[in-house]
Design brief:
The protein is of the alpha+beta class and 412 residues long. It has one domain: D-Amino Acid Oxidase, subunit A, domain 2 (D-Amino Acid Oxidase, Chain A, domain 2). The chain has 12 helices and 15 strands. The strands form 3 sheets. Strands 1, 2, 3, 4, 6, 7, 8, 9 and 10 form a 9-stranded mixed β-sheet that branches. Strands 11-12-5-15 form a 4-stranded mixed β-sheet, sandwiched between helices. It is globular. About 11% of the residues have low confidence. It comes from Trametes pubescens (White-rot fungus). It holds the Pfam family DAO.
């Protein structure tokens, strides 16, 4: 999961680091931009904005060296600038406005990022899928899905299985690359009493990637009265932490040094510390069909399992894009097309020479229109299904427009 109770969209790689695969990163960028435009549509729609608690918030990224001197950060900034992200501004004025240490924080840029109250959003999404005919069943699956694929499809009268079980995929997908990332955030009262009310999200990204502990700074308004302050990302640790834990003390000191006017003792007395485990994976996010052959009694040449896990702290950032990918993979599985490894299907990494050529030909201009996938998702969000045939399905994720055929999927 992402940080508890709140979500701020990020362009990959995420602030918390732990990126280890370049081809998965390229796919994540595509999925992130699909999701960005969906959230932007929702924030612009008064009904959806209220139902899903979505808003566009100024987010400022700060750096201890000039961005032009850091090839990775320069590449990320240029990609965001050209991607269609709104409100891009490469400007250090925020350093002065916030009274930060000018000698330490020498560069910055700003974008408009979606911010979602995930408590409200998840509640609304649950009602939405139920209205569309999904049936939620509580149960447990405790072994490799492949060995029980046929039994599960038969038990739930499903046509395909979508495995979105997060850390559970260690077992359900027999994927030993899955691991937990422990994290926590302080919840401060952003009421203007102890420090000036903070309206922008303030971020310093982690510099460590891979299967290592990372530390970063983010100060993010969750809503009008609560401010989230973090953070750290610690692999393979699952124990809960308290306010006196060394990691929490360290993130508190870092935030205080970054923003001296911040009173980190002005905490929400009812809920001062939020924490959770992000479902990470060595090799990064996996959105692909099951590549192993099904058991002989399954009666099909290729498995009808589709995997979607390993998003770490970027689950909400990639949500709509990876869901769209899952939809197409389910369709391929139902057609019994040969499954393709995610790496083979991923967007190719564009070489620097190609980028320079595209820049000279003005081929990387900002897009003038929103993406069609975003429009399609907005239509889906506001138009619940009225088809009575879906009332017994576990979830509907695939529709053949020409034949008007509905398929049932088992989502885990």
């Amino acid at each position: 999961m992402s940080h508890p109770d709140t979500f701020r969209w990020e362009y990959p790689p995420a602030v918390c680091g732990h990126t280890s695969d370049v081809t998965a990163l390229e796919s994540s960028k595509r999925w992130a931009m699909i999701s960005y435009h969906v959230y932007k549509h929702m924030a612009a729609n008064p009904v959806l904005r209220e139902q899903f608690s979505v808003q566009m918030r100024e987010t400022v990224f700060f750096f201890e060296q000039r961005i032009k001197d850091d090839a990775d950060q320069l590449r990320k900034m240029r990609e965001m600038e050209r991607s269609g992200v709104a409100g891009f501004r490469h400007d250090t004025s925020a350093v002065h406005e916030l009274g930060l240490d000018k000698k330490r924080w020498v560069d910055a840029y700003e974008v408009l990022s979606p911010l979602i109250d995930t408590d409200k959003a998840l509640s609304r999404i649950t009602r939405l899928v139920e209205d569309k005919g999904a049936k939620l069943v509580v149960g447990s699956v405790t072994s490799d899905l492949l060995t029980q694929e046929e039994a599960l499809l038969s038990k739930y009268s499903a046509d395909a299985i979508v495995n979105a079980s997060g850390l559970g995929s260690y077992t359900l997908a027999n994927d030993k690359n899955v691991y937990p990332l422990r994290g926590a955030v302080l919840r401060l009262l952003n009421d203007g009493q102890k420090f000036e009310k903070i309206k922008k999200a303030l971020v310093v990204s982690a510099t460590a990637d891979g299967h290592v502990k990372s530390e970063f700074i983010f100060i993010v308004p969750r809503n009008e009265n609560i401010l989230y302050v973090g953070g750290f990302s610690e692999p393979d640790q699952t124990d809960r932490v308290g306010e006196d834990h060394e990691n929490v003390k360290k993130l508190t000191r870092d935030a205080q040094e970054f923003l001296p006017d911040l009173d980190t003792d002005h905490r929400d007395p009812a809920y001062p510390l939020a924490q959770g485990l992000r479902p990470a994976r060595i090799g990064d996010v996996r959105v692909e069909r099951e590549l192993r052959a099904p058991v002989p009694e399954a009666g099909s040449k290729y498995s009808r399992i589709v995997h979607c896990y390993g998003h770490a702290g970027a689950g909400w950032s990639l949500a709509f894009g990876s869901a769209l990918e899952v939809k197409t993979l389910v369709e391929d599985a139902l057609e019994q097309l040969e499954p393709m490894p995610m790496h083979a299907a991923a967007t190719s990494v564009v070489s620097q020479v190609q980028v320079e050529h595209l820049e000279k030909s003005v081929a990387l201009e900002k897009p003038g229109k929103e993406s069609k996938p975003a429009d399609a998702f907005q239509d889906w969000l506001v138009q619940p299904s009225s088809d009575p045939e879906l009332s017994d399905s576990t979830a509907n994720t695939s529709e053949d427009d020409s034949a008007e055929e509905q398929h049932k999927t088992l989502n885990l």
